[in-house]
């Protein structure tokens, strides 16, 4: 095939929908009528070599040793190609790797980076407030204790509101407007946080809390919007799916998500620098109110500048962010919000929603639990030092460890031999182990002699939280659901996660540290079990093939779908038990896809014939190769309108 130039540019696997009319019956005779060259072309289009071996066998159907060999072969070839491309571009433009990383990773995740900066800052400035305003934030003589606690509660509640509300709006009005709206809310919220004030200190706390709530609504919306737009942009909006989607979709989305870690890192560095500047280098407590005011207000104003730039970028440079959603709605003849798809999602994908929601809930309880480690070992190591810089320095180390977890997750999340599901299960189990050990030997590990072992478990739990559930929940909550309700499902799952954070934030105010460990530990085990039972593994799955399955479900013909989206590899344990994959049939699906392709070709021919009669020209989005056009012309039913002459695209990239 490599030597035949006519077979080079056909592109992979078009996501054709169900045979609505029933006129095109998938038969083995149809395949038998093909010439050798025609068969090669169809195989090249429908059985891309990154997912199928030379015999047309799907990678997940191969015996285990052959599967390992095939996956490693594809991954190694892709890695060599990327390294070659990087080197070639770097020789031409030495700055190319930085600009490419910025455009493909930093910009898509800029919103998450900015919100990571701000939300991490809320926790960082609290000890500074407690030191500079002790009668308000520590002893509560002049401020209401409930309002100081409400800062955390309102932050989480704002995120929950944003996740659900913007998730729905994103599926209703489109991804682009959701992205712009989020950036606008965050920008205004940052101005409110920077300028928050009150006649009394308690009034200031109330203003600060509500400003944070407003900002957090925008933060919440970032979750479903960044995940869905990043994933759909990776998939592409054309008919043909891409190798980029199958091999790098997870990396693209996770690389945007890890900007949250860089936001936290930037915040910690900036706070340290600002405190050193405002105090003249004297960072030992007590801290005066003026230095504290300058430190926290400037730290909030800095991301406001970046957020304003984000508003501009999303308004003028992301005009196609809603294209995939628009295509999906057009196919289903839907305008506005697709309520039918939402109802059907609960019916057919309810267990998946349980998986994404419960796992995210458990992860966020763990995320808050992770902070318990730090408070304990700092107290032992430093003798209960009141210097906020001590905690900030340890935060910096922890963020560095977390970033290692983020990056390792982005490198391995698309590996078919490990992938999303195993990464999540192993991450949960490792966190469970690192919590259960000190839970039942608390006095031992918090003693001065063993505190460094305790500290090591803290850093390792941070690493496996990022190299596990924190990264996977973000992508899985969008990936396992259909396009029309993807943002809604992601927002609901993320909101369930923040509900876990809220439960932890409230509960921790009423129990001691040892009891906190006893409570938190079991959420790791629960998350692993929920993931194993209910979450499908979409690693390596063509996302447009999943949309093809949804098209069958949408018209009440689930049993007529036989493709790889119901391969046991891509179904949860629960779905396998229920027999969802019983209709999987690779040979029948291949024949069916050819006939679905025939339907597209016939519609294209009818459209051209109508244009010809009216003497009008309307540009055709579909380009058909000579082999496919010839085969369908020869084997189609009589009466199919045919446009004579050479089909365009026989030598053009992306032709069918």
Automatic annotation (TrEMBL):
Keywords: Membrane, Transmembrane, Transmembrane helix. GO terms for cellular component: membrane. Signal peptide: none annotated. GO terms for molecular function: transmembrane transporter activity. This is Phosphate transporter HvPT2. Residues 644-656 have a biased composition (Basic and acidic residues). It is found in: Membrane. Its main location: membrane. The keyword Chloroplast does not apply. Residues 1-27, 635-656 are annotated as: Disordered. It comes from Aulographum hederae CBS 113979.
């Amino acid at each position: 095939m490599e030597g035949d130039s006519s077979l080079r540019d056909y592109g992979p696997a078009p996501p054709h929908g169900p045979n609505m009319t029933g006129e095109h019956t998938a038969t083995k005779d149809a395949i038998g009528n093909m010439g050798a060259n025609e068969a090669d072309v169809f195989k090249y289009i429908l059985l891309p070599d990154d997912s199928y071996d030379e015999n047309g066998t799907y990678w997940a159907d191969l015996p285990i040793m052959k599967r390992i060999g095939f996956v490693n072969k594809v991954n190694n070839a892709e890695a060599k190609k990327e390294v070659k491309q990087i080197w070639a571009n770097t020789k031409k433009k030495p700055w190319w790797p930085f600009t490419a990383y910025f455009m493909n990773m930093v910009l898509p995740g800029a919103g998450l980076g900015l919100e990571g900066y701000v939300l991490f800052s809320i926790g960082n400035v609290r000890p500074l407030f407690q030191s500079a305003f002790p009668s308000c934030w520590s002893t509560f003589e002049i401020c209401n204790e409930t309002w100081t606690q409400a800062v955390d509660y309102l932050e989480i509640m704002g995120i929950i509101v944003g996740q659900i509300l913007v998730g729905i709006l994103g599926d209703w009005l489109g991804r682009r407007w959701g992205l712009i709206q989020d950036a606008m809310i965050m920008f205004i919220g940052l101005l409110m946080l920077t300028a928050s004030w009150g006649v009394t200190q308690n009034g200031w706390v109330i203003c600060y809390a509500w400003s944070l709530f407003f900002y957090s609504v925008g933060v919440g919306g970032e979750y479903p919007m960044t995940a869905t737009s990043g994933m759909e942009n990776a998939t592409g909006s054309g008919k043909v799916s891409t190798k980029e989607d199958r091999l790098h979709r997870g990396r693209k989305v996770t690389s945007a998500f890890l900007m949250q870690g860089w936001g936290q890192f930037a915040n910690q560095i900036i706070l340290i620098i600002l405190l050193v500047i405002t105090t003249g280098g004297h960072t030992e407590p007590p801290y005066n109110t003026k230095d504290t005011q300058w430190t926290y207000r400037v730290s909030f104003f800095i991301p406001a500048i970046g957020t304003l730039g984000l508003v501009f970028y999303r308004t003028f440079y992301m005009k196609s962010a809603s294209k995939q959603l628009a295509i999906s709605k057009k196919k289903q003849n839907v305008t506005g919000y697709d309520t039918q798809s939402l109802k059907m999602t609960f019916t057919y994908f309810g267990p998946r929603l349980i998986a994404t929601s419960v796992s995210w809930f458990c992860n966020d309880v763990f995320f808050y639990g992770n902070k318990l480690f730090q408070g304990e070992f700092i107290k032992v190591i430093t003798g209960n030092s009141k210097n906020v810089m001590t905690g900030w320095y340890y935060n910096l180390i922890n963020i560095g460890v977390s970033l290692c977890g983020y990056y390792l997750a982005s490198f391995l999340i698309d590996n078919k031999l490990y992938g999303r599901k195993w990464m999540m299960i192993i991450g949960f189990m490792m966190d469970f182990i690192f919590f259960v050990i000190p839970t039942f030997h608390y006095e031992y590990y918090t003693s001065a002699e063993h505190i460094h072992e305790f500290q090591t478990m803290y850093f390792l739990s941070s690493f496996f939280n990022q190299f596990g559930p924190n990264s996977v929940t973000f992508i899985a909550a969008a990936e396992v659901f259909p396009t029309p309700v993807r943002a809604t499902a992601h927002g609901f799952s993320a909101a369930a996660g923040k509900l876990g954070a809220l439960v932890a934030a409230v509960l921790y105010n009423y129990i001691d540290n040892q009891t906190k460990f006893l409570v938190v530990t079991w959420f790791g085990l629960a998350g692993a079990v929920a993931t194993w039972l209910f979450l499908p593994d979409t690693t390596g799955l063509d996302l447009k093939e999943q949309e093809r399955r949804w098209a069958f479900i949408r018209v009440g013909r689930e049993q007529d779908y036989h493709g790889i989206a119901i391969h046991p590899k891509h179904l949860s344990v629960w779905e396998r038990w229920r027999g969802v994959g019983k209709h999987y049939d690779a040979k029948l699906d291949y024949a069916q896809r050819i006939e679905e392709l025939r339907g597209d070709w016939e519609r294209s021919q009818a459209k051209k014939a109508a244009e010809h009669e009216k003497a009008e020209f309307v540009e055709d989005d579909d380009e058909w190769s000579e082999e496919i056009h010839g085969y369908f012309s020869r084997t189609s039913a009589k009466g199919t309108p045919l446009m004579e002459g050479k089909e365009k695209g026989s030598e053009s990239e992306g032709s069918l």
